[in-house]
């Protein structure tokens, strides 16, 4: 088996670069036929995957959720499978798939494990995702987490959540699903193919990567004080929240204000409030469906 490793050296606040020599030693000791390609900026991972996928039996991500999403989108029209060795900050897809988190077990799994077919979602008819799409608070906290440089792991998301509390408030939103419609204010909406967000927190604990459905968590509104009081227990998200399951979802938000830049709470523009698999995106009318195979 010939394996392409797409490496994001900046993943995990530089952890990937530090662990790369160990990976190379392990690959040499096991006699793995492989090639390593390192990214230097956004878009590289997708381009590498798309251009080189037919030359390899397996394409492996050595990075985090953002790198994984790029590789996924580079493979989605082909037949080459994807593996992930998690070196990112949150590693939420790997958590949702219950794959090994440590370097050596992860390598053993991709060399000896059995492949699984997972559902995919498509965002605005063009961008695919495999774990979650976050809208509102969840997405903005993810974006804020990228500004935090001195922490690693779940601690990054905890700090980002508390930073976001000062800046985010619910916005009017209309959400259409297979057999349900929500027309309400939304503080947070999570379209979950997998269960893990924010480094192991769960807004949709029953989400499954292979059931052909999205689990949708919609939180109409919640006070900052209640989030602080209960964080990080899942019960905070049951306050004025609703859950649904669907194969199709369409939403439209109606922002009423922009952030003032003075720390006052405001409704941020839409292109600041949507992420897919940890990647920033913008959409007014996303159409999402599951059941596609990578």
Structure characterization notes:
The chain is α+β, with helices and mostly antiparallel strands and 294 residues long. Helices cover 28% and strands 27% of the residues. It has a six-stranded antiparallel β-sheet. β5 and β6 form a beta hairpin. α2 packs parallel to α3 and α6 crosses α7. The C terminus is likely disordered.
What is this structure, in a nutshell?
By secondary structure, the chain is α+β, with helices and mostly antiparallel strands. The protein contains eight helices and 17 strands.
The Cα radius of gyration reads 19 Å
Largest sheet: 6 strands, antiparallel
List the secondary-structure elements in sequence, H or E: EHEHEHEHHEEEHHEEEEEEHEEEE
| Name given to the CATH architecture of the largest domain | Sandwich
User: What fold name goes in the CATH topology slot of the largest domain?
Assistant: Tumour Suppressor Smad4
Please give the number of β-strands: 17
**Overall mean confidence score, pLDDT:** 80
């Amino acid at each position: 088996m010939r394996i392409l490793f797409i490496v994001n050296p900046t993943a995990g606040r530089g952890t990937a670069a530090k662990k790369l020599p160990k990976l190379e030693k392990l690959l040499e000791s096991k006699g793995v036929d492989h090639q390593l390609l390192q990214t230097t900026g956004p878009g590289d991972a997708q381009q590498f995957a798309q251009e080189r996928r037919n030359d390899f039996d397996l394409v492996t991500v050595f990075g985090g959720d953002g790198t994984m999403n790029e590789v996924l989108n580079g493979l989605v029209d082909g037949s080459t499978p994807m593996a992930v060795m998690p070196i990112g900050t949150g590693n939420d897809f790997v958590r949702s798939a219950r794959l090994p988190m440590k370097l050596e077990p992860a390598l053993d799994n991709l060399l000896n494990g059995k492949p699984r077919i997972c559902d995919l979602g498509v965002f605005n008819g063009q961008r695919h995702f495999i774990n979650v799409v976050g809208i509102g608070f969840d997405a903005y906290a993810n974006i804020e987490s990228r500004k935090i440089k001195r922490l690693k792991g779940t601690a990054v998301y905890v700090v980002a959540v508390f930073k976001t509390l000062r800046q985010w408030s619910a916005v009017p939103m209309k959400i259409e699903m297979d057999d349900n419609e929500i027309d309400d204010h939304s503080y947070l909406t999570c379209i979950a193919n997998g269960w893990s967000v924010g480094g192991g927190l769960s807004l949709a604990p029953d989400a499954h990567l292979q059931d052909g459905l999205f689990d949708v968590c919609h939180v109409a509104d919640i006070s900052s004080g209640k989030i602080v009081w209960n964080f990080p227990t899942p019960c905070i998200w049951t306050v004025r929240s609703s859950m649904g399951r669907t194969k199709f979802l369409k939403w439209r938000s109606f922002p009423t204000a922009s952030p003032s830049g003075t720390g006052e709470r405001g409704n941020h523009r839409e292109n600041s409030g949507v992420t897919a698999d940890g990647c920033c995106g913008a959409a007014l009318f996303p159409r999402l469906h599951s059941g596609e195979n990578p």
